[in-house]
Amino acid sequence: MTAAALEIAGLTRTFAGPPAVTALAGVDLTVRPGEVFALLGPNGAGKTTTVGVCTTRVRPTAGTVALDGIDVARAPVRVKQRIGVVTQYNTLDRACTVFENLYYHCRYHGWGGREAAGRTGELLAQFRLADRAAAMAQTLSGGLAQRVQLARAIAHRPSMLFLDEPTAGLDPQSRLALWELIAGLRAQGITVLLTTHYMEEADRLSDRVAIIDHGKVLVTGTAAELKQRVGADTIVELQLERLDDALVARLEALPPVRRVHRGEHGLRVFGTARDGLIPPIVEAALPYGLADLRIHEPTLETVFIQLTGRELRD
User: Fold this and answer.
1) 213 within 8 A of 45, measured Cβ to Cβ
2) pTM, whole model, 2 decimals?
3) Nearest to 6 by CA among 162, 207, 182, 197
4) Which of 108, 134, 175, 311 has the most CB atoms in a 10 Å sphere around its CB?
């Protein structure tokens, strides 16, 4: 059996107050070699703290983290040699060009000058940055800067890459371009731990997903497995001018309806089948000022709502 690329056991992190804050409350995770593993949850769920411990920047209050069998708290230098890190913030050296950011990163990791220059040329081609090699880092757009940061993170050929909200704040085009590059890393055998609060990002990029909230892992599995746990084939979203318990009760009594979730501006109706579901829902909702109706399949946000009773973006 192949050893885990990353093994997190009973991980706890409490920050001193007042008041004291428990960012992680017993996280257990196993990331397999070569997979893209997504840690999905809202802001403040504990995603960044988890990555901070795994990358030696945050010391755990309790529990252990082993990367390739190496305890990250006991051997941080060995761990740093084996990992790459990309955050949502621009950490490029603004006094250097794109080429120099990549080249000096390789030199920092002990590569010789010729070897570092050769590797830099490879990365410039791989990440479509050759035409920006002489550009100063401070002149790059957000999307280009993240592309350089991703190239720099794998420059020394790490065994594991940590991506902490890497597409936060990027425009849709830049986000899609970065997704393409991240997906390509799997072919290189790099294990990836991705933190995100974007459902589509986790769904599209990951082999497996863990949903985290309030410092605890709620559920782990493939995106398909997690969606199956919802127990619904169709979800109908209703936007209403007013909400009433009587309407919820009436909808819950419909044969195809499994359950109804009440939100701030409307309802989500979970149905076991689409046939025959919409007409009685519309009939029941019209007296309550039905403003909009949308039909879709379960998503990872649906799973989060089922587990927590609130929306992922809350």
Assistant:
1) yes
2) 0.87
3) 162
4) 175
Cα separation, 313 vs 265, in Å, equals 14
Between CA 61 and CA 109 the distance in angstroms is 29
pLDDT in tens, 127-145: 999 999 999 999 999 999 9
Q: Cα–Cα distance between 256 and 37 in angstroms, integer?
A: 35
The owner of tokens 């019209």 is 286
Q: Which two tokens stand for residue 273?
A: 């089948």
Quick one: 220 exposed, middle or buried, by C-beta within 10 A (0-12, 13-18, 19+)?
middle
pLDDT of 82-129, one tens digit each?
999 999 899 999 999 999 999 999 999 999 999 999 999 999 999 999
User: CA triplet 147, 148, 149: central angle to 5 degrees?
Assistant: 90
Domains annotated on the chain, with CATH: 6-92+140-223 (3.40.50.300), 231-297 (3.30.70.260)
Pairing of strands 208-213, 216-221: antiparallel
Long-range pairs, 94-97, Cβ under 8 A, ≥24: 94/136, 94/137, 94/138, 95/136, 95/137, 96/136, 96/137, 97/133, 97/134, 97/135, 97/136, 97/137
